[in-house]
Amino acid sequence: MKSAIIACALLAAGPAVAQQATGEKKKESEMSMSAPAKPSVEKRSAEVTVDIKATPEAVWKALTTADELIRWFPLEASVKPGVGGSMTTSWGEGMKWESPITIWEPQKRLRTLWCPPNTPEADLFGVDFFIEDKGGGVTRLRLVHFGFSTGAQWDTMYDGVSRGWDFMCWGLKNYLERHAGTPRDIVYFHRDIGVSKRKEAWKAAFEPGGLLPGVRPADLKPGDRFTSTVGGVEISGTVRKIIPDLDFQASIDTLNGAMVRIQLDPCKGGPGDEIGATLSTFGVEPARVDAIRQSWSGTLDRMAATK
């Protein structure tokens, strides 16, 4: 079974969640072959709607061309356009997936699958992108990730993918509205922290020597300001989202509107959790980005070593 992202995502909640999804979906697809007329289990969808100050053509291009995809979604991408083509996205070694394209309606609708294209209709699993021109220079993108089982074993993955797509769509909006045409310099790490270390890892991420030292998520809410210093680089920004012990997202004014995310998700390769850190920057001096990259790498290596 193949998958796109995620890191929704990620994939996204990122690539780890995408890999979990493919395993669960494979089991369902195998069971469904004897009854293609109806879903093998009851399904649900994750949806995100975002209004973007850009043309439908610009949004379509951002969804369907490799150069644009890597400015808001994966680290690497390639696209074979049109129905029967595919979209390949990668977040590094071991996290590369090819997604068949089954609907291709320029400036209107795109569908990519997280399953083989010959999967019975009732058991399809994938993503629809609907584009609508709202006038006044605003385009609405509605993303529908369909085909999730309602089974409890899918709840964590469903939550992670929902949050991941929300973050990615924010990234798309930020790119097109503030940095269109500018290459992205991204800092992205994830490390396995093992079993029963979730709360300790979350706390350590914001303590001295952590990923965002001095930030106190428990005392913040969306819209609040915060400051930190990472690798000698001063950071000042505004909180977008906080979910305790799980997800912290913010924009960084002092890095030209960069986006930062600290997250905890299930490990992709076994039991336990992993911590992820993402910083998407545009037009920031490489030396400042590299200083943060080096600081985060060392911090996460230490966190992983104590699992």
Order of secondary-structure elements: HEHHEEEEEEHEHEEEEEH
For the largest beta-sheet, the strand count, sense and barrel status come to: 7 strands, antiparallel
Rounded to an integer in angstroms, the radius of gyration calculated over CA atoms is 19 Å
Integer average pLDDT: 87
In the sheet with the most strands, the strands line up as 1-7-6-5-4-3-2
- Strand fraction equals 35-45%
Helical residue percent band? 25-40%
Rounded to the nearest angstrom, the distance between the terminal CA atoms is 31 Å
Alpha plus pi helix count: 6
What are the low-pLDDT stretches, counting only 5+ consecutive residues below 50?
A: 1-37
The global form is globular
User: Structural class per helix/strand content?
Assistant: alpha+beta
Number of DSSP strand runs: 13
Please explain how this structure is put together.
This protein has helices at 15-32, 56-64, 66-69, 155-178, 198-205, 286-305, and strands at residues 43-52, 76-80, 86-90, 96-105, 109-113, 126-135, 138-149, 184-194, 225-230, 233-243, 247-252, 258-266, 273-282. By secondary structure, it is an alpha+beta fold. The strands form two sheets. The protein has a seven-stranded antiparallel sheet. The two termini are 31 Å apart.
